[in-house]
Amino acid sequence: MPNTLNIAKERISQISDIATSYVQQDKSLFDHFIHSYYQSLHQEAAKDISNIDLAGMALHHFTLLKAYDGNQPQLAILNPIAEEQHFHSSHTVIQIVAYDRPFLVDTLLMSLEAEGIDVHRTYNIIVSVERDENGNISHIESAHESDTSKMSLIHCEIAYQNNDELAALQQMLLTKIDTLDVVVDDWQKIRAKLTDIKAELAGQNLPEVFYSQQEIQAFLDWVLEDRFIFLGYREYRLEGGSFINIHDAVNNKSDDSSHKDSHKNNDNANLDLYAIGDSGLGLLRGGSEDTLSKSFDELPSNLKKLLTEPRILMLSKSSRVSPVHRPVYMDFLGIHKFDANGTLIGEYRFIGLFTAQAYQLSVQQIPLLREKANKIMAMADLPRDGHAYHKMMHVINSLPRDDLFQASVEELYPIVSGISQLQDKKSLRLFSRVDHYQRFVSCLVYIPRDKFNTELRIKVQNVLKDAYGGMSSGFTTEFNESEHARVHVHVRTVPGQVNEIDTAALQDKLSALMQSWSDHYQKMLLDNVGEQQANALMRRFLSYIPAAYQERFDARTAVEDTKRLAGLSDEQPMIWHLYQSTGDASNQLHLKLYGRQDPVILSKVLPVLENFGVSVISAQTYEFDLPEQSIWMQEYELVLEHVDTIDMQVVRAQFEDSLKQIWAGRIESDSFNELVLTTRLDTYDVVVLRALSRYMMQAKAPFSSAYIQQTVVKNSAISVALGELFDARMNPIYSAEERASKTSQIQAQITTALAGVSSLDEDRIFRWYLDLINAMVRTNFYQREADGQRKDRLSFKFLAADIPNLPKPKPMFEIFVYSPRVEAVHLRGGKVARGGLRWSDRMEDFRTEVLGLVKAQMVKNAVIVPVGSKGGFIVKTKTMADGREAFQAEGIACYQAFLRGMLDVTDNIVDGQIVPPANTVRHDEDDPYLVVAADKGTATFSDIANALSSEYNFWLDDAFASGGSVGYDHKAMGITARGGWESVKRHFRMRGMDIQNRDDFTVVGIGDMSGDVFGNGMLRSTHTKLVAAFNHLHIFIDPNPDTAASYAERERLFEMPRSTWDDYEKSLISQGGGVFSRQDKTIAISPEMKALFDISEDSLAPNELISALLKSPVDLIWNGGIGTYVKSANESHADVGDRANDAVRVNGGELRTAVVGEGGNLGFTQQGRIEYAQTGGRIYTDAIDNSGGVNCSDHEVNIKILLGKVVEQGDMTLKQRNELLESMTDTVAELVLRQNYLQPQALELSHLRAAANLSDHQRFIQMLEAEGRLDRAIEYLPSDEEIAKRQKAGTGLTNPELAIVMAYGKMWVYDHLLSSDLPDAPYFVNELRQYFPDELASRFFDEMKEHRLHREIISTYLTNSIVNRLGIEALFRLHEETGQTLATIARGYAISRDVFHVSKAWDLLESLDNQVDATLLLELELRLRDALENGVVWFINAFGQDLQVADMINRFEDSVEKLTKAGGFIEQQFSEYLQEDTTSLMADDLSANDAAMFAMLPYHVDALDAALLAEQYERPVDEIATLYFEAYHVLQLDWMMDNIATLPQQDHWDRRARHALVNEVSRSLRMLMDTLLTQADAKQAFNDWKSRHASQLDAVTAEMQKLDSNDESAIGLSTLSVLMSELSGLVTK
User: How many CB atoms lie within 10 A of CB 816?
Assistant: First the structure.
């Protein structure tokens, strides 16, 4: 019947077909071989092997078979390669061809296992092989039985071995086969020896000693019946043993005295045992000479005597492991050799292995054993067939068979009897027997089954090994139906060195291992906690306490651990316990950690502990698998690293608390924590030092965090003192006197201690700490939450000016917020400041980023009420790798912690009264104004901020953060982009382009349409041709866009949530364009791209393409993204501090765009802007361009403050307020954009006269520096040396530089106005109407006047108006030249503005945008500036600082208007000059009326003179004007003023001289008028004066005409001064 489990014949045929294709000869023979080779291969073994591989394996084996010559096995070990061996395997392959012999496969597998090599597959077949006379194979057939005439083919696959290891492995296996051959060759001889010896014994008349002759013969027969595998034989002779006689031994058994005498005579005997030459067979083959048995010789004499006691048969275990068949210790069969007299003369020694039958047959079937069993039963004397009898017989049969073979009846009986009597199922019993040769001790240990486990077995095994002095031990375990598990332990010993053992004591020791721990635990638990709780704890824990724990800890300790484990809960998921044990070294500590769920990973715990200044010597985890929940305990052995001892009473609680807080994430793990363990500083005292160090790092202290920590820990006494200083200054429990006293004492103590610090760097670190603590004005450290818990953040408020080493510019206030989750900083330029809070990704230097932003914010906020502020925070514990939602949630939580930290140290206002924070010492003044705004990463966080404002009942309520759900949505309004677009439009107007209504323009953009600034910006004009844009994901290219279609598509993307450039409809992109991923390796550059962007390369990497786009010759670069993309040539990328964009950044001098619009912050470095502007590029600054957002927010905040009062009074509901806010959206936008229109205009006006005003700018900068307001190096304003170069070159400040000067000028003006009484003047209170929407001004003007920031609003509005309209240069000159305060100048400006009706001219000029040349409009604006400046000078000269604004306007407005109106007196008097000017202006496209208005401007000051004289002399203004202007003409003052206007203005002194001449003209004319008007008939008096001075007047006129006729020389200052002197002399005569 075919075997269906083997592979099918069809498959073998397929294999054969493949295999035979590999050979050229013997195909038929090979085919037959393969069928024989695989006919018995199991299909399961072959299922994962391909036919190709099976073919190759067979071919290789066949090759070995052919090569076999009958002398040596063919053994190949290889890592097969398909092209070489035609098969492949991931394992190493062994193939053997050898004549078949017993145990061949077993021996090979055993040998591999002994080498630790895993065997994956083994296949063995036996074949008959016939060869011809030449030794070639002629026939192969499968063999059906094993025989040495057959061939054994073995295929074995083992774990992969390196090629260099194969030779050694092959040699080892061949050696094993050689050994096996020796055994196989000799086993018949060995068997024959035993047959001969058996016959010899039968012929001797030997008495029975241990066994009867009959039983010995039966046993030897039994052995010869293939019950023993013979592996070796040798004969020995004994010398010195003539006294050892078997007959004596038998007699001595019955005669104790003679037995003792015999042994006494034996004491001095010298016994030697020799192996007889040429007697050895098998494994015991030896030389031809007799040799002394070294192993016997080395035995102690008593053991020699024991082993040579005359007995016929000895059974034992060899000390050698069998090298063949089974890897076990071989069995030893010794037969004593006697002479005819019964004297012991030697030994026949057999070694081998009992076959399986020896272990399977019952005792009664085995000779010797049955005799032993009968004797034991006889000694027991039990009723035959009774229960006890059968039980004892069962015990005998179940004893280890080796013990039955080897032990005597005397040794066996107590063991068998003891086992039979096992009754107590809870007790442990030990039965042991020492081998006759003392090579091992056999121990039977009976353990109650419910107590048995592996851990207990190991303990028992180790105790037995140690007790007997063993070298090693082995074991077998047996379970049956009894209540005990039997562990048979073999302890290998050294003969003669076996310890004497008290078996009862050893048994007790083993019993203690089994029983004492849990029993003792229960008792200790009961004693400790009482019966009820003990029972509950035992039910919960006892069955789940791990054995390893029981081995490590005693029961008393376990009770304490159990109580702590039971205390674990949701509120307390982990418990820490620090202790020292009696007897430990002083620097040795122990720590236990208790927890739930999965044990903490040791690799996470170890660094935490090491940060406390300890080394972890050992760590162990014990898990308690309770049914309801797994709990665990970890034990750590610690050694103090840096101190010898600690005060456990002081530090235990704070150390455990620190660990608890660290694990809960409430404090961080670093080296600062060592202070907790080594000083009296507690967890949160150390947090203060840690937080201050974090601030130091952000403040650019030149030390690493690790070095700061090292220094603080090393100098712990100073660190403790710093903690005490912090407490003394900031702890509210002290009175002012106590605080001052303690602070002084501790500071003196620290100063003294610092003198002992040898390291300069360490000294500097501590002085940083000292400076920070001294500069601290508030902290929330002593505040608590409502539930009494500590706050989860720590806030410090500093006076930045008091921190000596803080990088410049220094803000007024700085709040640093620290927690393990977040670090944040808020920089404020003044008490009333605003700015956004940024989610920064600059972990190492976010303060540097914020400092750069606050610089820009200070400039930007020059247009609004608050000065600049900026904040930034970092998220410390999560990244985007944790998932977008998780990261966003963590960011929000950190943002909230930041805001709470700031509100913690900010005053509130309740019922109009300042309410300081609770439990907070204030070293500064009242400070309630804190507002925030959105920034990068926080655009949608305003509602979150306002919710916190509500949580704190903060007085600003939802004015705290602008732009929330009840506020002005900047993106929906597009306010930032619209503001920036005003700058863009101004730039293009200056280039003669109208980009809103007429001219298309090309744009390269930074950002994408989902962004507020970029998206809104790219929808400002339908003439926008966006040819390229990029963000962090994509590059968008559209070389020739359809303006209408592309506008619509951009609009679609803008409306789409989270759109990217990849969402752009590709079909709308013009030829040569596309959307490219920034992850691409290269981007092909199309011909259209090359032409448009002036690129020569055929392909570029994405970053290279972006750089090329930035440098392309387009009309506009619009930055609406994040990052810095342009620097100057003299800046490195590292200087920029934006590593993410290093690869794309270009220099300002490389830009070829005509215009840059900075909708986003920090797109250019300031030096990059200046460099670009110096090449002719049109750019302002980000602060100018994107100020719309902050201005809008400022309006929102101030409107909410205003309406908050209205709501509080009950005059409006909150719902009504919200509706009103929404209804004013467009109005607010108009108010905001007004500044975005005027500021660029003001810059262009300054730039038009930049070269002429350079000396004014220089002196202004110097003044700001002298007042500590400006660090020109930080703002990259030119040095005096650079200014000198520019003066020589005839160039002035660039627009980016002018923007900085203007901003600092506004701050300078604002500060002066705010500190004056001007904001309280009734006239200027009306400026509030200009700041707020008209609807509010009409309904709530009384509330406006009570607005908490009404003075700031008035000062801000006036500052913007004056600086934008008059120019910072004129303001500075007026301040410098008149010596008046800025408040007085502001009054003069307001009077002049209203008296001259300048607003009408301003409106006119704005209406002419894009109709008249932009430069002409600016020149007309400059006329207005000059008129205003002259007006201010006139009023100050006339009235000094006593300028009553409303009164002055009322006094002069009508008179000036009457004189300067069209067809008025001045026009009649100066018609020639006016007509000439008017005609010139009309040639530049101004209408006649408009041209006449601007031509009249210079004469407004003259009108003031006439009006003042009319008032003083109470004459009609027409009469005065007639006389005034006649005198004006007679004195040729019009000629003088024309020529004074042409004087150079290269420096301050030129201006002073010119100003002096103008003043002299006015003074002379006024003196003449005063002289004339004191006369009764002023007209007659003037005629008389003319007559008296006719010749002098004619001479002056002639001189003037002469000068006019000389075209070659200019009329200079000296000439005009002389002429004016002559005219002045005439006036006084």
Answer: 26
